[in-house]
Write a structure and sequence with these properties.
The protein is about 45% helix and about 20% strand. The strands form three sheets. The chain has a seven-stranded antiparallel beta sheet. Strands 10-9-8-11-12 form a five-stranded mixed beta sheet. Strand 3 and strand 4 form a beta hairpin. Helix 1 crosses helix 5 and helix 6 packs antiparallel against helix 7. The longest helix has about 35 residues. The radius of gyration is 25 Å and the shape is elongated. Bound molecules: zinc ion (ZN).
Length: about 350
Amino acid sequence: MLKAFQYRLYPSKAQSEALLEMLETCRRLYNRSLAERRDAYEREGKSLNYYDQANTLREQRMQNQYLARVNYSATQDVLRRLDKAFQAFFRRVKAGEKPGYPRFKVKGRYDSVTFPAYGNGCRLKDGRLYFQHVGRVKLKLHRPLEGRIKTVTVRRKADGWYASFVCEVEAVPLPPSDKMCGVDLGLESFAVTSDGEFFPAAKYLRKAARNLKRLQRQVSRREKGSNRRKKAVHRLAKAHLHIANQRKDTAHKVARSLVNRYGLIAVEDLKVGNMLKNHRLAGSISDAGWNLFVNILKAKAAEAGRQVVEVDPRNTSQACSGCGRIVPKPLSERWHTCPACGTSLHRDVNAAINILRRAAA
Ligand SMILES: [Zn+2]
């Protein structure tokens, strides 16, 4: 199975300039190739594919000194990304969805380059990460890498440079467990289990939202193109990144705790759930990061040989976990009391039990 590891990079000034140049060259290649596909179609009704475009790379490199300074496989990866964008576009057209033609990447919005074959143009050596045409960049291995490295992606974020390694690792199953739990994802608590365990919602979100609003106002007040605006934009991006990191941290902790203890974990199927359950709270839902959590949970479970089951969330909070009767209650009502069988418990625990029961059925 594949597992990703991310580390912070500490390039020198010259190295970070070289990395920026690499991003910019790849961005231009991406946009040029996108235009080429569009023109070929508009002028000749011809659809170019990845191979049509990759076949021109060698020649382009001979004429373009910037392109020649980027690892060859990494430039192939740029074309593969573009190809994926087109594949997704065609899929949407076919499915009758709103297609959304692949877009040009504006400056500053193309922020990563992938070396698809480790060892080719990118290699770890003596505690540094070597990139072809950039040099040996310092990195902090705050946790050990595992398995065999397959790809490396260098990425620019608001707070600096990072390298992500995707590695092939052996799954390390935990001892089997026949314990099962259902998990209700919520806003009041981040997660509540059928055993009555509450994982609190991260408190930072509300405070962070206020902070974001303030920074957003700062950006819009400042004059376009000014240095002061650039600084404000950077602060805003950093605040967003900070929230994303904290959200990821919470998700990892809760998922780890569940996977360690349960052989089967049942969650709501969010593809159905988001629409049905709390449509009034769409903003809060994206804040809560449930999708992120479920993805992390699935990855950890797969690694540990444990099972995650996604169930239809319809009526999980309204149905009585004691007798199955539908007991309607508004979202503000936090307690479930069944007039038929007398079952009385926290609303979210009731939902979690229903979720588990569906998975077991
Ligand atoms: Zn009941």
